[in-house]
C-alpha cells in the first residue's frame, strides 16, 4: 500500500517519507481493516515524530496518524457489530501516547479494534468525520469527568482551538449549560460566538481569573490550571486536558471509545454540532508534508485533514 512513514525521529519535513509498497497491516481477531478515505493531523503526530514520547512509544518505523474515516474491507473472527462495507470513523489508538500503533492512518489501509471506531454520521463527508475523534472525545470525556449537569455555567479556556470549539458546542447542545463563557483573541470572537459561546473574554486584554464572576465548571484546554482554579465557585470543578495540575483541578488523558462517538452521532446528524476544517483543508495525500508544515505554524483554524487517501 501507499503510506507515509518515518523510520527515524526528527522534523516531519525531513523524516517523513512516501512509500508505495508498504505492507498492509494484518488484523487481529478483534480488529477490522479499514480502507482509509481521510485522515486528520494532530499536534501529537509531529511531536511523536520529534521523539517527545519515544520512551513509551512503539518502535520505529511508524506510519503516523490517529484520526481516520473510511470503509471496512475485512473483519476479524471475533468482530460482532461491524461488517464489510461499513463507513466508520474514530481514533485508532486507544490511549494517545503509550504503545501507539506502528501502522497509523496516513496510509491506504489501517487495522483497528472494533471498539475504537463507530459508524460515520450519514451527513458528514469522510473529511469532516476524520476531523473529529481526537478533539471530540476529550471534549466529551472532560464534561463527563466534571460531572456536568444541565443549568450549570462553564468557562472554556481556549474556545477557538480544536478541542475548545467542540467543547463550546457540547456545552450548548449536549450538556445544557446555562452560560458558556470562553477565552479567545479578538479575531476569534465571531467564530466562538457562532459556535454557541454567550460571553467572550479577550485574553490579550483581561486576566479571566481576576474577574469577579466565578463558574460552576472550568474546562482548561490551554494548560492554565493554576489560574483556572481561581475562577471556580466554592464547589466548582476544573478539568484540564494538559499541563501541570493545581488542586482542586483534575486532568485526564483521552481514551478512544466507539461508544462515546455513538452517543454523539445524533447531535452530528441533526446538524446541531458541526465539524470544523481549516480553510486550507483538505490537503491531498501527496501534500501530507505540506499539511504538517501548515499545522506546525500554529495558525490553523480547525482541523488539518488529508483527503483523498490515494
Question: Would you give an account of this structure?
Answer:
With 310 residues, the chain is α/β, with parallel strands linked by helices. Helices cover 24% and strands 25% of the residues. The strands form 3 sheets. Strands 3, 4, 5, 6, 7 and 14 form a 6-stranded antiparallel β-sheet that branches. The chain has a 6-stranded parallel β-sheet with strand order 10-9-8-11-12-13, with helices on one face. It is globular. The termini are close together. The mean pLDDT is 97.
Key features of this structure:
310 residues; alpha/beta; six-stranded parallel β-sheet; globular
Short description:
The protein has 310 residues and is of the alpha/beta class. The chain has helices at 12-15, 43-49, 126-130, 133-145, 162-173, 189-195, 225-228, 258-269, 288-296; strands spanning 3-6, 16-19, 31-41, 67-75, 87-91, 109-113, 117-119, 153-157, 179-184, 199-202, 215-220, 232-240, 250-251, 304-306.
Structural class call reads alpha/beta
Our count of helices gives 9
- Which regions contain 5 or more consecutive residues with pLDDT less than 50? none
Let me know the largest β-sheet: 6 strands, antiparallel
Order of helices and strands: EHEEHEEEEHHEHEHEEHEEHHE
Termini Cα gap: 9 Å
Radius of gyration computed on alpha carbons = 19 Å
Percent in strands: 15-25%
Tell the overall outline: globular
Residue-averaged pLDDT, rounded? 97
- What is the number of strand segments? 14
Helix % is: 10-25%
